Amino acid sequence: MRVNVIVNGEAMTADDVWEGESLLYALRERLGLPGAKNACEQGECGSCTVYLDGIPVCACLVAIGQAEGRSVVTVEGLADGESLDEVQRAFVECGAVQCGFCTPGLIVQAHSLIASTSGVPEDAEIREALAGNLCRCTGYEKILDAVRLAAARKAAL
Amino acid sequence: MRYVGQPIDRLDGVAKTTGAARFSAEYPYPNLAYAALVHATIARGRITRIDTGTARKTPGVLAVITHGNAPEMKPAPKPNQFDMSTLAAATSVNYLNTDEVYWNGQPVAVVVAETLDVAREAAYLIEVEYAEYPAAVDFAAEEGNARPQKSTMLSEADGRKGDAEAALADAPFALDLRYTTAQVNHNAIEPHSTTAYWDGDHLILHEGSQNVAWVRDHLAIRFDLPKQNVRVISPFVGGAFGGKSFVWPGTVLTALAAKVTGRPVRMMLTREGVFRTVGGRTPSIQRVAIGAQLDGSMTALIHTSVCQVGRTGGWSEQVTSVSRHLYDAANIQVQQNLVGMDLLANTIMRAPGESIGSFALEATVDELAYELGLDPIELRARNEPARNPLDGKAFSHRLLMECFEEGAKEFGWAGRPQEPGSMRDGRWLIGMGVAAAYHPAWRFPANLTVRLSDDGTVLIRCGLHEMGMGSATAVSQIAADALCVPMAAVTVAYGDTALPDTTTAGASSQTASVTASLLAACAKLDRAVFTLARKTPGSPLRGLRRADVTARDGGLYNGSRGESYHDILRRAGRASVEARVGADTRLGEIADQVRSMSKFLLDRRRWVKAACGAQFCEVLVDSDTGETRISRWLGVFDVGRVVNAKTAASQLRGGIVMGIGLALTEETLVDPRNGRIVNASLSEYHVPVHADIPVIDVRYLDDPDPTMPLGVVGIGEVGVTGVAGAVANAVFHATGKRIRDLPITLDKLL
């Protein structure tokens, strides 16, 4: 089938696609957007988290056919040109990034958490919201710092 | 120093947060094909029939490669300690060049197709029949077949001082305990991935690796190529923890698939594929026995272990290493044993040996403290050695008791009631535990070049590896300080065999190894630039001695007299000046290896060097369900000099979280009937998640080791050591139950 998806605000198409193929595969292998990562293909690790019509989903669990005509935002779509989103900036500043493989999924998930919370979310809320995003490097602490910092800065805007 | 020690943001942070960083499965190639593996479903035997007909006919399939049609590859070389790259082979199996099966999960076919889904579908359609041989796959049942492990130059497997068994029998207090630990797997978030293509007789590989030179050398041997014909590119590695140190089947088979199809080929292992083709940490059975006087002084310490290796390879862990160094026992005996099994080769994983060895030792020490009615820290203080207990060598640096003291104060250790089961908050039983952390310091030869250009910038070319530690950032900080230039002027090129060979990113050694060479190269460069300035007509530095000149602000100055590097090079008409450490000829390389090995052995004869620390843990155990939650953690470490306060803290914290997984949740389950891993996924293998982890307070004493370059000891592994011991001890303090079998799952507490 031909697939039409709006990715990061841009209309994109891919031809000769099997509709059962994952959105993740289509983004990474057909649309040149490898920001969302592939690490478990069963929705356990959260590395492939992207927005689908504004809701964070595991792109590995969405068939590309289901995304037809819908809007997808990936980690590549969060920065405004050279200017990083507050969440990205806070991840760098707080040292919440190590190997960087879980980072894109975490950033999208954290971005969504902050967008749906007024002010700075409680620690327990952050831990629960990010529990589906596995990180094997950082020990999680600095991710928490980054989310608090980004939320505080966004709240101050 | 302006940069070393500062909490500087990592240089690749923006690339990684915006999705711009390219990992090994993310290099686009025109005409790219995708590969999938078929895994053996028996532990040991021979393939008698393999039906690939339906798979081949699947539209989009480009090739189905089996032992029946695979091009011939050279076998893996025999390990030779004088050529480290021969250690690169994770297993000795010549994949798809044999009909023999050596482990359940061994690749028996590779499918290459236009898309990944087609490759996978076709892989499912391949039917394989086997003649099965008897196989040893149940570790617990094989304990009796274990044999003493042989010591090597890099790892001592036994040691003895006095007669520990006799001293144990005579001791007023004695404990003789048995511990078991489960197999665990690295589960770096990035699955092992390779993108490979052939350009004539040149092989180019994108591969997440902890040792790109080993991958290059190994593939050159397997495909019978000169090693300069193989290039391995690995600037970003999505976590490794030891699992990407050696060359596993997927790497070799992707190169093979690219050769067969004449196309660039990508293979990203599924999580299941990682479990089936990349080894994990061995399970262990350990005995720790301690004899002590009434005052707690140890008269006997015995630590023995049984671990597994695969019959086609496997790395033996130095499980008893901690017992060589931690306590001043009058009599010591350590002995590691191995049993060969028909399983996938196990491999090194973060602090191989010390992570699980420290669990058994530190739990026994805690138990002894309770027997004697002593505070566990006081018992350790009474047995803190002045010199290495086993052989009397000097410690280069050791602030272990200082770590305990600072930790005890910060954690509120003294205020707790020592009686087990005496703290409670509703349903939750509360307990506190402590344990020592310990990991030896290592250093290996590293080659690199440092180039100063006439625009004042510095380029370091160095095949080092960045799996998340912040290596390139640390190297930039060190170089900027050494040359007195702004950090922004320094670029590090890394993760590529087109650069000088560095060293393995393992054994927490990379920063120390690279630092030694980097400082030497910067000193050479400084001399070369100064000589240039002194000799150039018109130079304000003309005729001065080096001692009269100071490097500062990106130039050389004597008071206000002097000029910037930019001006020095321009005046001399030089575009750049370069300094190199390490040979660039094969003969020179061998000479370097021999030189560094003898230096290494001499150094080891003289000093015992290590990072150490004190782990403090508070747990909550549900009195009804046995569920254990970590509620507080503090680790205080002596890791020599800290180069980057931001990345260092995360290295330690990440180690602690991996230790919590080892202690409470992680276990690779091997079917004792057929050797098949039954929980080969992240849904059934439980890595700790955000919600499992409390605030983890990490501190370090930041006291440089006088015998290491810049005082750096290595920070990547010590964090995971002692963690399981501290958890087990806290669980005892909460519940009164000693669990001597990892992981401590709730069924063991009911």
TrEMBL record, chain A:
Record-annotated 2Fe-2S ferredoxin-type domain positions: 1-78
SUPFAM superfamilies: 2Fe-2S ferredoxin-like, CO dehydrogenase ISP C-domain like
Source species: Acrocarpospora corrugata
Database matches in PROSITE patterns: 2FE2S_FER_1 (PS00197), 2FE2S_FER_2 (PS51085)
Name of the gene encoding the protein in the UniProt record: coxS
Domain of life: Bacteria
InterPro entries: 2Fe-2S-bd (IPR002888), 2Fe-2S-bd_dom_sf (IPR036884), 2Fe-2S_ferredoxin-like_sf (IPR036010), 2Fe-2S_ferredoxin-type (IPR001041), 2Fe2S_fd_BS (IPR006058), Beta-grasp_dom_sf (IPR012675), Diverse_Oxidoreductases (IPR051452)
Name the record gives this protein: Carbon-monoxide dehydrogenase small subunit
Keywords recorded for this protein, A-Z: 2Fe-2S, Iron, Iron-sulfur, Metal-binding, Oxidoreductase
GO molecular function: 2 iron, 2 sulfur cluster binding; metal ion binding; oxidoreductase activity
Pfam families: Fer2 (PF00111), Fer2_2 (PF01799)
UniProtKB/TrEMBL annotation, chain B:
Domain of life: Bacteria
InterPro entries assigned to the protein according to its UniProt record, in alphabetical order: Ald_Oxase/Xan_DH_a/b, Ald_Oxase/Xan_DH_a/b_sf, Ald_Oxase/xanthine_DH-like, AldOxase/xan_DH_MoCoBD1, AldOxase/xan_DH_MoCoBD2, AldOxase/xan_DH_Mopterin-bd_sf
Gene3D superfamilies assigned: Aldehyde oxidase/xanthine dehydrogenase, a/b hammerhead, Aldehyde oxidase/xanthine dehydrogenase, molybdopterin binding domain
Keyword terms: Molybdenum, Oxidoreductase
Domain Aldehyde oxidase/xanthine dehydrogenase a/b hammerhead per the UniProt entry, residue ranges: 18-134
Gene Ontology MF terms in the entry: iron ion binding; oxidoreductase activity
Cited SMART domains: Ald_Xan_dh_C
PANTHER family membership: ALDEHYDE OXIDASE 1-RELATED, XANTHINE DEHYDROGENASE
The name this protein goes by in its record: Carbon-monoxide dehydrogenase large subunit
Organism: Acrocarpospora corrugata
